[in-house]
Design brief:
flat, mainly alpha, about 110 residues
């Protein structure tokens, strides 16, 4: 029986060499009929790879936060908000008596 250390080492070696062997055709030369484009500058690469996603993230964040800020809501982490009972009566939960609650839906609903 082989030891777990030998099996793990073999698995690690296979996992490291298979991607290298599979990617070896990627190092081929450009075929003769194809054009050879100019090199891209590092600044252009940086703007394309990092700048566009960063601008999109900022625009999405603004689209999410600006309406809430325009309504005067607090958007800071840990900001407390009032409890809201969707579909419930227009009174505070403390004002509702136990026998007064109505059921409006489900198997025992009444309209």
């Amino acid at each position: 029986m082989t030891s777990p250390l030998i099996r793990r080492t073999a698995l690690l070696l296979v996992a490291a060499t298979v991607p290298v062997l599979v990617a070896s055709p990627a190092g081929a030369e450009v075929p003769e009929g194809w054009s050879n484009p100019d090199d891209v500058s590092f600044l252009h690469l940086l703007l394309t790879v990092a700048g566009i996603p960063l601008v999109l993230a900022v625009l999405i964040a603004l689209a999410v936060y600006l309406p809430a800020l325009a309504r005067g809501e607090k958007v800071a982490p840990g900001a407390t908000t009032q409890d809201e009972w969707f579909g419930g009566p227009n009174r505070q939960p403390a004002e509702i008596e136990a026998g007064e609650a109505r059921t409006t839906g489900g198997g025992s609903g009444s309209w």
